[in-house]
């Protein structure tokens, strides 16, 4: 059953803005931000001394050769309708199935087809 009015009366509840930090708190926040590598978005002031660049935490990655993405090949028959199956089961059994697929380099559907063929006596 729906009521005529809103369930929560947010429009009538005032929202107070967060309190402004004291100058000491603001200076400490700025220092922590600088140490973490953040740069200020405030307009530069000519009277301020320049901010040192943050120390490098990780070495720059080596220049990798430019790779072109491989065109993805569809392995699905476009004329065959598709359907999704979600299976929930004990973690050890799901892990057993995934390990089977990994060890035999099978997609999940290929493994299911293979196991069904085996169950129906159609295995090669």
Q: How do you describe this structure in short?
A:
This protein is an all-alpha fold.
Oligomeric grouping of the chains:
single chain
What is the residue-mean pLDDT, rounded to a whole number?
A: 77
Major β-sheet profile: none
The amount of helix comes to 25-40%
Along the chain, the helix and strand elements come as: HHH
The number of E-state strands comes to 0
- Computed over alpha carbons, the radius of gyration is 30 Å
- Principal-axes shape call: elongated
Uncertain segments are none
Strand content: under 5%
Judged by helices, strands and strand pairing, the structural class is mainly alpha
Please provide a written account of the structure.
The chain has 124 residues and is mainly α. The protein starts with 22 loop residues before the first helix and ends in a 5-residue tail after the last helix. The protein is 31% helix and 0% strand. The chain contains three helices and no strands. The mean pLDDT is 77.
